[in-house]
Amino acid sequence: MKVEKRIILTVVLGIVSLCTFGQQAMNRPYADDKLFHFGFQLGVNFASFGVTDSELPITNPVTGVTEIYHARVSSLLPGFHVGFVTDLRLCDYLNLRFCPGMQFISRSINYKTESGNPVMGTPGKTGERIDVLAMPVALPLYLKWSAAREGNYRPYVIGGGGASFNVSRDRDKPVLLNIMDYFCEVGFGVDLYFRWFKFCPELTYRIGFANLLCPAEGRMELAPQDAFYSDAISRLTSHCVCLTFNFE
């Protein structure tokens, strides 16, 4: 109950502070009249996978036991991202934005056997969990719809999509990700106008549509005892929540 009261109090104080900020003298009154403007992004992300099991019996070469494996992402690990902002004003309330950037993402996949037996990978070691790292370069294009400006703040919603290219691939890892993904993204934020710049905190949700899993078959560098990590999965898709701070 105390935690809920603290959350409510924090939200109320945030709204009061935002309203007080908006009632101050108007900063940068013509900032939104420019045809083009630029900026940069810093942010944190929490990424996950949409996992589809293959549900095929797999013989583990370490234990010699044939069984079905299940894979899940049980926790979200924080990452971060950086990027640039290019903004084109279409009309008073609509902007077209191109925001290329690089993400540093960490995800963990947990494995369980249907029988409850220990998951064995490298001989002599249990392998219930593996970490999957990625560094995708994203090329998203957004439409930003803004409300009317009130003092020094202006809320907005944003949506769009694009493609990303993973530039960090370790082919020795049990789970290898494909290079290309394509995605859509939706979210909301608020423009806060300061004397010298515009600060825009933004929360978005991104979902990928491509199957990121590179099959174990044909990967000569993959140890045979680790092939089941990929064989247990038929499809991996990307999901990501991003908290971005735009400086424009």
**Total strand segments:** 15
Radius of gyration, in angstroms, nearest whole number:
23 Å
- Average predicted confidence as pLDDT: 83
Oligomer: single chain
Beta-strand residue percentage: over 45%
Distance between the termini: 40 Å
Number of helices: 2
Helix-strand makeup class? mainly beta
Q: Secondary-structure map with pairings?
A:
Elements: H1 2-22, E1 36-53, E2 58-59, E3 66-67, E4 69-72, E5 77-89, E6 94-98, E7 101-113, E8 129-134, E9 136-146, E10 153-166, E11 176-177, E12 180-193, E13 198-208, E14 213-214, H2 228-231, E15 233-247
Antiparallel strand pairs: 1-5, 1-15, 2-3, 4-7, 5-6, 5-7, 6-9, 7-8, 7-9, 9-10, 10-12, 11-14, 12-13, 13-15
Describe the protein in words.
By secondary structure, the chain is mainly beta. It is built from 2 helices and 15 strands. It has helices at 2-22, 228-231; strands spanning 36-53, 58-59, 66-67, 69-72, 77-89, 94-98, 101-113, 129-134, 136-146, 153-166, 176-177, 180-193, 198-208, 213-214, 233-247. Strands 1, 4, 5, 6, 7, 8, 9, 10, 12, 13 and 15 form an 11-stranded antiparallel sheet that branches. Strands 2-3 form a two-stranded antiparallel sheet. Strand 12 and strand 13 (198-208) form a beta hairpin. The protein starts with a helix and ends with a strand. Residues 1-5 have low confidence and may be disordered.
